[in-house]
Write a structure and sequence with these properties.
The structure is a homodimer of 368-residue chains. Helix content of chain A is 39%, strand content 13%. With 368 residues, chain A is of the alpha/beta class.
Chain lengths: 368, 368
């Protein structure tokens, strides 16, 4: 299989599985237990916390382990006291948009993006200048569909002056570009293990010391009372190992991905009517989001599947629906072209041969 | 090591690890993806859902996978609309008591237990007869510390007549005694994988068709919108396998545990000043909760740890604190005796030799 859907999920790195196995087979203690078997496991969680912290340049004490990116995103919004406003960009992941809209504690405003998918500073400024300015803004670091990287440093310094907190969903960015919690200047940041060659079932919310959260899962007091529930030890250990590897190999991976992406895009451009979305702005090195005039994206995905090639017709979570990508809609792409969109997201173990094969197959399908 | 703390967590069954490995190593697709690699994984989740459903005699469509028992318990309470009352027994797990008390949507009442740790029907009746009777009652099927099994069938039929919903936390009961969702007559039931020789990071809430929940994790729409977030596939598959084995081997396990417990208790009774809590009422076949006059439970736990024996001085989650067991306090046990308490919880792979060794070691420690 040619797997080109790494923004949906990644295969677990073999070295990560190896790191996890002892915690599935031998060290099964409950980390809250006081005896030795508990303490061994507690210490493994501490190590993982250091590894994840190192990847994003944050103090280990500011890492809260969660069951994944969705929980981290949902939890982040609970930093806003009742009655205050939340503002989120229109291209956020559903795990930000839905809780922002649905929760009855806070009003929610949305922030537009321009035709390249970049958050509009004008819109942000207007929102902040209003009398009911938000208490928290949430803007993702890199978009899951387009791969567009936002100017979070710029947004953060702008908001800091107004004493507005900033959350960034860094689930797609981490492991693909350098991410420093402190240099970005954000107050909260979401991470996910299974997007960086770690196991599913683990994620983290990184929080600044000043942030006060209302916990979501309560009773038990784990994660210093920020997130109760017996820790998913093996998955946390795997997340830690994946973070360690991502940090060590970041430069190597980025170079490799960029070389593959360039090759891929050269091939794609030979297809008539094909457009690369957000091509003019800074994007993740692994992500290419394309539209092809007159093609149905869903159908194309199925045809590629028959050739044993996995790509996505939008974010995996939204795949079950046949709606046009909300990210493209927000960028003002016309509905017909948006419905033709497919996302190619490369991974560290993809090869030139796979890219060549993909380009060949895609060309032949589109020709028909 | 002699591991006698199975109510805190259990070692994963080797057969469960085997079942999980393909989903850590080979089948890594995102279950929401439409292509083959996604569908394979989706189907594995469906199988696990059937296995868990079979264990508790419920339709698969009524199983919601969660990140564990804590999330299942927290989620269960969200079946109560704003403004209505919740009533929980005083011996519930913190993951029921805390959200019941802390949530600002609902008032909370508590239900007393008698000196044996059985929920008081008098207290329940009084509560229900009051003008502001609760909309939901939560009473655990078997207690994590004492092992006491409640008359949930009796409570359910009493509450059904009053149209009050009943949730039962069956985390400790399942896999140790037969549990039928339909025969119990409850509306909601919580389960946990790592208490039945499955992996950590998975649990489930079983809900009746009539129940309407306000989801906790949102955005993504997984678990038919009851619980968003990429599924923890390997852990869910492991939970399913563990459930299958628990159902197949239930009788065998129960017999074995009961034989061990009887042997254990015969030995314990030779220790002067030792009391077995709730001895007169129906308890889980694996759990023995004891107090020893003049002994400090925490200290005893440490001394046993030095002899490579793992037991608990209360629920694992509360272990970090040095407070007397709230379960014993609720039963009216005096504070001094309560602080001497240790919980011995046996598992399917424990042996007679281990029980003999434990009895010998305990006797010699207490003598000093």
């Amino acid at each position: 299989m040619i797997y080109f859907d790494h923004n949906a999920t990644t295969p677990i790195d073999e070295r990560v599985v190896e790191a996890m196995l002892p915690y599935l087979k031998t060290f099964y203690g409950n980390p809250s237990s006081l005896y030795r078997a508990g303490r061994i496991v507690r210490s493994a969680i501490d190590t993982a916390r250091e590894q994840v912290a190192a990847l994003v340049d944050a103090p280990p004490s500011q890492i809260i382990f969660t069951s994944g990116g969705t929980e981290a995103n949902n939890l982040a919004l609970r930093a806003v006291p009742t009655g205050l406003k939340i503002a989120v960009s229109v291209i956020e992941h559903p795990s930000i948009i839905e809780p922002a809209i649905k929760n009855r504690k806070n009003e929610c405003a949305s922030i537009a993006v321009d035709e390249n998918g970049l958050v509009s500073f004008d819109a942000l400024e207007k929102l902040v200048q209003a009398s009911d300015s938000p208490a928290l803004v949430s803007i993702m670091l890199a978009n899951n569909e387009s791969g567009v990287i936002q100017d979070i440093v710029g947004v953060a310094s702008f908001l800091k002056a107004k004493q507005i907190k900033l959350h960034t969903d860094a689930v797609q960015a981490v492991g693909k570009i350098p991410v420093s919690f402190s240099q970005l200047g954000v107050d909260l940041m979401s991470l996910s293990s299974h997007k960086i060659y770690g196991p599913k079932g683990s994620g983290a919310l990184v929080i600044d010391k000043e942030v006060v959260l209302e916990p979501m899962l309560v009773g038990g007091g784990q994660e210093r009372d920020w997130r109760s529930g017996t820790e998913n030890v093996a998955s946390i250990v795997g997340f830690g190992k994946a973070a360690e590897l991502a940090l060590q190999e970041l430069e190597l991976r980025t170079e490799h991905l960029l070389a593959l992406r360039n090759k891929l895009e050269r091939g794609l451009k030979e297809i008539p009517g094909l457009l690369i979305f957000s091509e003019q702005v800074e994007r993740l090195p692994n992500t290419v989001f394309i539209g092809i005039q007159g093609v149905d994206g869903e159908m194309l995905l199925m045809q590629l599947d028959q050739k044993n090639i996995a790509v996505s017709s939008g974010s995996a979570c939204a795949s079950a629906g046949a709606k046009a990508s909300p990210v493209l809609t927000a960028m003002g792409v016309d509905r017909q072209l948006a419905k033709s969109a497919i996302r190619i997201s490369l991974g560290k173990d993809n090869t030139e041969e796979e890219v060549n094969e993909f380009n060949k197959v895609l060309k032949s399908i589109v020709k028909r």
